[in-house]
Amino acid sequence: MRIKVITKLMAVGFFVAALTLAATADNARAESASDNYGLYCVQCHGLAGVGKGINAPALAVQPRNHVSAKDMGALKDDGIALAIRDGGVAVGKSAQMPSFKKILTEAEIQDMVKHLRGMCKCEGPK
Ligand code: HEC
Questions:
Q1: Domain count of the fold of the chain
Q2: 64 touches ligand 1 (CB under 6 Å)
Q3: How far is Cα 38 from Cα 100, in angstroms, rounded to an integer?
Q4: Which domain holds residue 6?
Q5: Helix (H) or strand (E) segment spanning residue 114
Q6: Together in a domain, 25 and 35
Q7: Which of 34, 37, 45 to mutate to test the pocket of ligand 1 (most atoms within 8 A of CB)?
Q8: pLDDT for the residue 14
């Protein structure tokens, strides 16, 4: 009898532990576009976003300077989202700009576009 109760309590304990783990894993996800930029973009576009990330010297085409209002101002919001979602090739640019559709959700891509607009302090052509 007592063993049965202990087994039940242990089962409940495992369940709570599993829930806690699931919650922790969820919290480990990037919460903002700024976090996602730090995780997925800085390697090429650089910490400051000027296109001089640690991988940049190895790339045949230099990553876009996200801080340049001149460069980023020439790109439409839709085009930026497309480049992030489907990669450089989708917008007729270098394949060295990867596709992030398996990594970022559509909402995260749209947030990233806004984040980039904040970095360049610019708007795209309407
Ligand atoms: C492996 C290197 C690499 C990574 C990682 C990378 N990029 Fe790029 N990105 C590039 C290169 C190279 C270009 C320039 C493509 C060209 O001009 O042909 C580029 C261009 C761009 C452009 C401009 C597209 C255009 O139409 O001119 C945007 C916007 C962009 N990247 C956003 C991002 C974002 C946001 C991330 C992170 C989620 C990211 N990139 C991660 C290499 C990278």
A1: 2
A2: yes
A3: 14
A4: 1-29
A5: helix 106-120
A6: no
A7: 45
A8: 64
Q: In the prediction, which pLDDT does 5 show?
A: 74
Can you give the CATH number for the domain in which 93 is found?
Answer: 1.10.760.10
The pLDDT averaged over each successive group of 10 residues in the chain (126 residues) is 71 62 55 95 98 97 98 98 98 98 97 98 94
Same domain flag for 101 and 50: yes
Q: What is the pTM of this model?
A: 0.83
Same domain, 13 and 50: no
Instruction: Give the per-residue pLDDT at 31.
Output: 79
* CA 9 to centroid of ligand 1, rounded, Å: 52
Note whether 113 and 77 are within 8 A (CB).
Answer: yes
- What's the token pair of residue 31? 């919460």
Same domain, 25 and 85: no
Looking at residue 48, its pLDDT comes to 97
Residues 45 and 88 in one domain: yes
Same domain, 24 and 66: no
CB environment 12-43: b (16+ within 10 A), e (fewer): eeeeeeeeeeeeeeeeeeeeebeebbeebbee
Would you give the DSSP letter of residue 63? Answer: P
